[in-house]
Design brief:
Elements: H1 9-15, E1 19-22, H2 31-34, E2 38-43, E3 49-52, H3 55-61, E4 66-73, E5 83-90, H4 95-115, E6 128-130, H5 146-155, E7 164-168, E8 171-181, E9 184-193
Parallel strand pairs: 1-2, 3-6
Antiparallel strand pairs: 2-4, 4-5, 7-8, 8-9
Length: about 200
C-alpha cells in the first residue's frame, strides 16, 4: 500500500497485524490506526536530534556527512515515539543515492524486527526540531562557497524533490548530477521556459 487514503481502520482491523511499517511516508497517521498496531516509521536523523521535516537536507546543510537512521514507534506527536533501533547512514552522494541506501537499511531493520522481539526505548537527549523545506528553498543561494553549492545541488537531486534551480530571464535553470572537481562544481543544467503569470 502506498496511498494514504487506502489506510483505514477497517482495513487494519481486518488484517490484524502486529506491525505496520511506513518507509518514506510523509502523511500523518491518525490515532485510530496508531492504536490498532505498532506503527513504525523511519527517520533519517539520530532522534531526538532532527525531529521534523527534510532531515537529510537539514543535516547536509549543517555539515553532517553521516547520521543514524532511526526506527521508531509512531505516536501522536511527530517523531517523538520510542526507538526500536538505530543504524548508521552515510549522507554522501546525490539525494537519490542516499535514499536508495536508506531503503536497504530500512529493509534490514524490518527483517530484524520480524525475526526478533525488539522492545522500543524512549528517546533520550536534547530535542532539536527541523522544518520541512519548501520548493522556494531549492533556489541556489546568491552567496555561497563551492562546497555549499555542491551540497545544495546534490541534496535535492532525488525523485519527488524540487530540484536546485535559478531563475534567469524567461527561463528556470535546474541543476542535477553535481560533482566536485578541483575546487569547482560541475553539474547538468536543464533549461525550462518559465510560465508567465
Amino acid at each position: 500500500m502506498t496511498e494514504a487514503e487506502a489506510l483505514t481502520a477497517k482495513y487494519v482491523k481486518k488484517l490484524a497485524p502486529r506491525y505496520i511499517f511506513f518507509p518514506h511516508w510523509s502523511s500523518l497517521v491518525g490515532c485510530d490506526i496508531l492504536n490498532l498496531a505498532e506503527c513504525v516509521c523511519f527517520h533519517a536523523s539520530d532522534v531526538p536530534f532532527g525531529r521534523g521535516g527534510s532531515p537529510v537536507q537539514n543535516l547536509i546543510i549543517r555539515g553532517f556527512a553521516e547520521t543514524n537512521l532511526s526506527a521508531l514507534r509512531m505516536v501522536e506527536e511527530l517523531d517523538a515515539g520510542p526507538v526500536y533501533t538505530k543504524r548508521p547512514l552515510s549522507l554522501q552522494g546525490r539525494g537519490q543515492d542516499i535514499f536508495e541506501r536508506m531503503a536497504e537499511v530500512i529493509w534490514s531493520i524490518i527483517e530484524s524486527m520480524i525475526s526478533e522481539d525488539i522492545t522500543p526505548v524512549p528517546q533520550a537527549g536534547n530535542k532539536v526540531f527541523f522544518t520541512r523545506r519548501t520548493p522556494e528553498q531549492s533556489e541556489l543561494p546568491m552567496v555561497a562557497g563551492v562546497i555549499d553549492l555542491y551540497n545544495h545541488i546534490r541534496m535535492l537531486d532525488a525523485e519527488t524533490y524540487p530540484t536546485a534551480f535559478i531563475n534567469y530571464g524567461d527561463f528556470k535553470l535546474e541543476f542535477t548530477t553535481a560533482e566536485l572537481r578541483d575546487s569547482k562544481v560541475e553539474a547538468k543544467v536543464t533549461f525550462h521556459k518559465r510560465i508567465s503569470k
